[in-house]
Amino acid sequence: MNNETTYSGVLGELTRFTGAVTANAADLPHLDGPRGRLEKILSEAQQVAQQQAALTASKQESSKRLKALVVEGQRLASGLRKFLKEHYGTRSEKLAEFGLQPLRSRAPKATPATQEPPPPAPTPSTTPPPPAAHPAANVNPKP
Questions:
Q1: How far is CA 100 from CA 72, 77, 111, in A?
Q2: Angstrom distance (rounded) from CA 85 to CA 51
Q3: What is the mean pLDDT of residues 112-120?
Q4: Three-state SS for 122?
Q5: Residue 99: left if φ>0, alpha if ψ -120 to 50, beta else—which one?
Q6: Inter-axis angle of helices 32-88 and 7-23, to 10 degrees?
Q7: In Å, what is the CA distance from 73 to each residue of 6, 52, 66, 117?
Q8: Are 11 and 49 in contact (CB under 8 A)?
Q9: Which pLDDT value is given to residue 120?
Q10: Angle at 85 between CA 79 and CA 86, to 5 degrees
């Protein structure tokens, strides 16, 4: 029964099966046609598997190279952004053309006309508050 699920496992199983059928070809002359087709398919599948492995390695190398190029490009672009800010100035609107945010001053906060003015603060009274009684003054002295 086939328990293999990976291509390499299935190809190994097919190779063993083909070897067994070829070893018993004298007993199975009526299976020469299908056995020949199986050998041809197995041979082509092994070649494609080798090609796939080579392409996988090539893909990994390409991915590494792409990552290195992207990092180098980002670093260079960062330096160029700093040169552009130095050349045009940090407040120049020309920076927006390069996708950079120029420094802009904030607009002063405008008070909304519909808002009611705050109530006037209470004025302090001119009379001082009465002095607080000392808590010990309420205690009855012992006779």
A1: 20, 12, 31
A2: 50
A3: 66
A4: coil
A5: left
A6: 160
A7: 39, 31, 10, 56
A8: yes
A9: 72
A10: 90
Least confident segment among 35-39, 69-73, 136-140: 136-140
Report yes or no on whether pTM surpasses 0.70: no
Tell the burial category of 21 from Cβ atoms under 10 Å away from its Cβ (0-12, 13-18, 19+).
Answer: middle
Name residue 138's amino acid.
N
How many helices and strands, by DSSP H and E, does the chain display?
A: 2, 0
Q: What are phi and psi of 39, to 5 degrees?
A: -65, -40
> DSSP secondary-structure letter at 43?
H
* N-to-C CA span, the chain: 112
Token pair, residue 104, equals: 């802009």
81 with 97: CB under 8 angstroms?
no
The amino acid present at 52, given as its one-letter code, is: Q
